[in-house]
Amino acid sequence: MIIRQASATPLDFDGLQILDYTANQPLNSSLAHIRVPPGARHALSWSTRSTKYYYLLSGTLYFWLDREQAVLHAGDVCIVPKGQRFRYENRSDAPVELLLFHTPSFQLEAEVFED
Length: 115
Description:
Layout: E1 9-13, E2 16-20, E3 30-36, E4 41-47, E5 51-58, E6 60-65, E7 68-73, E8 77-80, E9 86-89, E10 96-103, E11 111-113
Antiparallel strand pairs: 1-2, 2-3, 3-10, 4-9, 4-11, 5-8, 5-10, 6-7, 6-9
Protein backbone atom coordinates (compact mmCIF):
# COMPACT_ATOMS: atom_id res chain seq x y z
CA MET A 1 0.00 0.00 0.00
CA ILE A 2 1.31 3.44 -0.95
CA ILE A 3 -0.19 6.51 0.69
CA ARG A 4 0.72 9.84 -0.88
CA GLN A 5 0.95 12.99 1.22
CA ALA A 6 -1.70 14.59 -1.01
CA SER A 7 -4.20 11.94 0.08
CA ALA A 8 -3.51 12.27 3.84
CA THR A 9 -6.37 13.74 5.86
CA PRO A 10 -5.44 17.18 7.25
CA LEU A 11 -6.70 18.01 10.75
CA ASP A 12 -6.29 21.00 13.02
CA PHE A 13 -6.39 19.80 16.61
CA ASP A 14 -6.20 22.68 19.05
CA GLY A 15 -3.42 24.34 17.03
CA LEU A 16 -1.60 21.11 16.18
CA GLN A 17 -1.44 20.57 12.41
CA ILE A 18 -1.93 16.88 11.69
CA LEU A 19 -1.75 14.83 8.50
CA ASP A 20 -3.44 11.49 9.16
CA TYR A 21 -2.02 9.04 6.64
CA THR A 22 -4.16 6.09 7.65
CA ALA A 23 -7.59 7.64 8.35
CA ASN A 24 -10.44 5.24 7.59
CA GLN A 25 -8.05 2.43 6.65
CA PRO A 26 -8.69 -1.05 8.09
CA LEU A 27 -5.17 -1.36 9.54
CA ASN A 28 -3.76 -2.61 12.85
CA SER A 29 -1.71 0.57 13.38
CA SER A 30 -2.00 4.19 12.32
CA LEU A 31 0.45 6.91 11.30
CA ALA A 32 0.22 10.68 11.45
CA HIS A 33 2.64 13.54 10.84
CA ILE A 34 2.23 16.34 13.40
CA ARG A 35 3.48 19.92 13.17
CA VAL A 36 3.52 21.67 16.54
CA PRO A 37 3.77 25.45 16.00
CA PRO A 38 5.59 27.62 18.56
CA GLY A 39 3.50 27.89 21.73
CA ALA A 40 1.16 25.01 20.78
CA ARG A 41 0.48 22.14 23.16
CA HIS A 42 -1.34 18.83 23.43
CA ALA A 43 -3.75 18.74 26.37
CA LEU A 44 -3.36 16.22 29.18
CA SER A 45 -4.90 13.00 27.89
CA TRP A 46 -4.63 9.23 27.67
CA SER A 47 -5.88 6.39 25.47
CA THR A 48 -8.11 3.49 26.45
CA ARG A 49 -7.05 1.65 23.27
CA SER A 50 -3.60 2.42 21.91
CA THR A 51 0.05 2.62 22.77
CA LYS A 52 1.52 5.73 21.12
CA TYR A 53 4.99 6.06 19.61
CA TYR A 54 6.21 9.64 19.07
CA TYR A 55 9.31 10.06 16.90
CA LEU A 56 10.72 13.61 16.85
CA LEU A 57 11.82 14.65 13.36
CA SER A 58 12.93 18.21 14.19
CA GLY A 59 12.87 20.77 16.96
CA THR A 60 12.64 20.52 20.75
CA LEU A 61 9.53 19.31 22.56
CA TYR A 62 8.68 19.31 26.27
CA PHE A 63 6.90 16.04 27.07
CA TRP A 64 5.23 14.83 30.28
CA LEU A 65 4.47 11.19 31.11
CA ASP A 66 2.31 11.32 34.20
CA ARG A 67 4.41 13.69 36.35
CA GLU A 68 7.80 13.02 34.74
CA GLN A 69 9.06 15.70 32.31
CA ALA A 70 11.53 15.12 29.50
CA VAL A 71 12.94 17.34 26.78
CA LEU A 72 12.94 15.58 23.40
CA HIS A 73 15.18 16.43 20.45
CA ALA A 74 15.33 15.26 16.83
CA GLY A 75 15.80 11.49 16.69
CA ASP A 76 14.30 10.84 20.14
CA VAL A 77 11.34 8.51 20.66
CA CYS A 78 8.74 8.70 23.41
CA ILE A 79 6.50 5.65 23.98
CA VAL A 80 3.22 6.28 25.80
CA PRO A 81 1.63 2.98 26.91
CA LYS A 82 -2.13 2.61 26.75
CA GLY A 83 -3.66 4.23 29.84
CA GLN A 84 -0.70 6.48 30.69
CA ARG A 85 -1.42 10.20 30.96
CA PHE A 86 0.71 12.50 28.83
CA ARG A 87 0.94 15.98 27.39
CA TYR A 88 3.47 17.99 25.42
CA GLU A 89 4.23 21.54 24.32
CA ASN A 90 6.52 23.52 22.06
CA ARG A 91 8.23 26.26 24.07
CA SER A 92 10.59 27.29 21.26
CA ASP A 93 10.31 29.87 18.49
CA ALA A 94 10.44 27.21 15.75
CA PRO A 95 7.91 24.55 14.75
CA VAL A 96 8.39 20.95 15.90
CA GLU A 97 7.78 18.06 13.50
CA LEU A 98 7.02 14.54 14.69
CA LEU A 99 5.58 11.24 13.59
CA LEU A 100 2.95 9.48 15.68
CA PHE A 101 2.16 5.78 15.45
CA HIS A 102 -0.83 4.24 17.30
CA THR A 103 -1.04 0.50 17.93
CA PRO A 104 -3.80 -0.57 17.62
CA SER A 105 -4.91 2.15 15.23
CA PHE A 106 -6.20 5.54 16.37
CA GLN A 107 -9.87 5.93 17.31
CA LEU A 108 -10.92 9.33 18.63
CA GLU A 109 -13.59 7.83 20.88
CA ALA A 110 -10.85 5.91 22.74
CA GLU A 111 -9.02 9.13 23.70
CA VAL A 112 -9.69 10.79 27.07
CA PHE A 113 -8.89 14.51 27.36
CA GLU A 114 -8.57 16.00 30.83
CA ASP A 115 -7.93 19.70 30.15
